[in-house]
Amino acid sequence: MAGFILVELYQSASERAFDAQLDVYVKSILAEMVPDPAAGEDAPVREPKGVGEPRFSLPLSGWYWTVAEAVNGEKVQFASLSLVGDPLDVAPLGSAENRSSFGTGPGNEEVRVRQQRIGLGSAEYIITVAAETAGFRADVRDFANQVILTLVVFGAGLVGAVFLQVRVGLRPLVRLRASLGEVRRGEADEIDENLPVELAPLAVELNALIHSNREIVERSRTHVGNLAHGLKTPLSVISNEARTASGPFADKVAEQATIMSTQIQHHLERARMAAQRRVIGVSCEVEPVLSRLTRAMSKIYRERDVELADAMPDGLRFRGEQQDLEELAGNLLDNACKWASSKVVVHVRQLQQGEATRELFELIVEDDGPGLSQEERREAVKRGRRLDETVPGTGLGLSIVADLAGLYGGRLELDRAEIGGLRARLILPSV
């Protein structure tokens, strides 16, 4: 748009300059036509001879002039030698005093036409001067090319300057983002505060928020530990006293104390997990945890074949504490080993972007045991629900896994395994 406006302005200025030059020749022709004062008032107008431009005398030179009577159908009275008797194709002036326009010369070339109505004595004449526009058009084209080239160079320079300004100007923001990402992945304890004065206060406030969050979590853990110690000791005393006594009352007390202990353990575990879930910037590698757990389960359950089926994705990290990942994976592996006939298979896979709106990975533990029906799978995740009393345990394993996965924004899914038993699919956030 800017280039178009510049070219239009230049063309308008060039046309005005061209018309001013043609006006000079109009005045020269008029001066040549003025009758000789010595011949009296009725002396006829003179034929212009010396207009001051040699090209008016060269045949078909592109420069022409004519003098026509205004009241006689604009009949040509005098004409330049360059016309060699050919007409000059221009529109009649009519009642206008003067006009500038474009026309066609004898050689079919485009000409710029300047017409002027004048009165000499009792007669009116129309002086027409025309000049070819080839040079004028060439000047406009050259100017347009220069404008285009200049604007292209200027635009490229402007784009480059904006690009450099954005790259250099936003570099501190990139550093802040990278530093925040390191904190989120657990690679750093706080954000780098070595930033420009505009961003340094933001980094300071974020670090204060991170430290405050950690202090709150530590206080929560301390309170949970104190509560656990304060409740477990009296319950242990009650349970011991009940076991030393006999009778229905003692049995009922022992039963209720056991239920209370299970409930306290469950809710304290949930409180501890909720406190840990809110820690900012905590993460751990998945491969060392699973490798250690599979080796441990292979030793504990020697008759079971526990294997890590798939190669671990490089650099896969769990967005949470290592202790929680050990508890999640450990409960699933322990449950699978208890029920498996001979084999437990562990799969780990990073979920693709199309499968999740954020970074997630899945941990699948399969066994070749008896498995569970659909109704039993729903019951298995309820806290304290044991489907088989002959197998040791509290019944909290799968419920703890489901609760802890939910606190991390993940989930636990139970289904039928391809190798015949139970398939536990755990989805957790990754870094």
3D structure, described in words:
The protein contains nine helices and twelve strands. It is α+β, with helices and mostly antiparallel strands and 431 residues long. The chain has a five-stranded antiparallel sheet. Helix 5 (248-277) runs parallel beside helix 9 (397-407) and helix 7 (322-339) packs antiparallel against helix 9 (397-407). The two termini are 49 Å apart. Its EC number is 2.7.13.3. The chain crosses the membrane at residues 147-170. Its main location: membrane. It catalyses: ATP + protein L-histidine = ADP + protein N-phospho-L-histidine.
Secondary structure elements and their pairing?
Elements: H1 2-33, E1 63-69, E2 75-79, E3 98-104, E4 110-120, E5 123-132, H2 134-169, H3 171-184, H4 200-244, H5 248-277, E6 284-285, H6 286-300, E7 305-308, E8 317-318, H7 322-339, E9 343-350, E10 360-367, H8 374-380, H9 397-407, E11 411-416, E12 422-429
EC number: 2.7.13.3
Main location: membrane
Domain HAMP: 167-218
Question: Any descriptors?
Answer:
Beta-Lactamase, 9 helices, single chain, alpha+beta, five-stranded antiparallel sheet, 48% helix, 18% strand, 431 residues, Heat Shock Protein 90, five-stranded mixed sheet
